[in-house]
Amino acid sequence: MLDTRCSESETLRRVINKENIMNDYSKHIAREDLYAEYVRILNSQLNLSDREAELFALLLKVDAEWEPTLGEPKNILSTDIRRAIMKKTLVNKNNLSKYIGVLKQKGILVKSNGVYEVREMFVPKPVGDLLEIVFVLDYQNKS
Known about the structure:
The protein is mainly alpha-helical. It has a domain at about 30-120: Arc Repressor Mutant, subunit A. The chain is about 45% helix and about 5% strand. The protein is built from five helices and two strands, in the order H-H-H-H-H-E-E. It has helices at about 10-20, 35-45, 50-65, 80-90, 95-105, and strands at about 110, 115-120. It has a two-stranded antiparallel ribbon with strand order 1-2. Strand 1 (about 110) and strand 2 (about 115-120) form a beta hairpin. The N and C termini lie far apart (about 40 Å).
């Protein structure tokens, strides 16, 4: 049972500490580095290039900071967002399209209701000031 008298992050720390986790690792990072660090960790499995990983981190930030206006759907690949990304990263339009294609091919970006979004399983879900990432390695013995 979770203790409702403490903050969400304190509760998560208690739950994590109470579990019998064999291998765990904690790292302190600056809040502004959250998405880049998150992608760096996931990239051990995704095998993105540096530029693709940079784009993925920026799209996660856009997704998290999205504020709807006038009922417009969330489209993290809108023309305005693409222009802002090209300006920030100094990537040209053709290369940006190529990197976006890789993220689509790997299933990171998916089309939903006519607009693109980051697949839910890749969106970080911080609790307070903590983000827990769990990798489950399901292995089988070969006979």
